[in-house]
Specification:
Blueprint: H1 4-11, E1 15-21, E2 28-34, E3 36-38, E4 43-46, H2 55-62, E5 65-70, E6 73-78, E7 80-82, H3 85-99, H4 101-107, E8 114-118
Antiparallel strand pairs: 1-2, 1-5, 3-4, 4-8, 5-6, 7-8
Helix pairs in contact: 3-4
Length: 123
């Protein structure tokens, strides 16, 4: 279970920084991404803006270890890829509710995968 301070920071943040390992270079690659918090599952959901074509997603698929940073705190976890269209659509709808459909459609196209990141330390 994530610490309460981590949950508070996630609740008040619009984005998190993720770090994944480059599949070719082996280097750490960090970038800010939008997310939705799923407190019932104690996890965070991510959507790559170009779906499975997004470079950071391809890196994550090669090595599912990811580091999340929010408000000066970080945690590492093993992400899991969800390809079930019903699951992906549910997460898309959550993103639209959080960021507005207009903003979502401005940035996201071809979303065919969702990433679940458990909010437990370690991984």
């Amino acid at each position: 279970m994530a610490r309460e301070t981590t949950l508070q920071r996630l609740r008040s943040s619009r984005e998190v920084n993720i770090t994944v390992k480059g599949r070719r270079s082996g280097r750490d690659i960090s970038l800010p991404v939008w997310f939705v918090l799923d407190e019932g599952r104690s996890s965070l959901w991510l959507l790559p803006i170009r779906g499975s074509r997004s470079p950071w997603f391809r890196n994550l698929e090669a090595d599912p270890q990811v580091r999340l940073e929010v408000g000066g705190e970080s945690l590492s976890a093993r992400a899991s890829v969800q390809r079930d269209p019903a699951v992906v659509q549910d997460i898309v709808e959550r993103f639209k509710a959080r960021y507005t459909a207009r903003e979502f459609e401005r940035y996201y196209s071809g979303v065919d995968v969702a990433i679940e990141v458990p909010l437990s330390h370690g991984g």
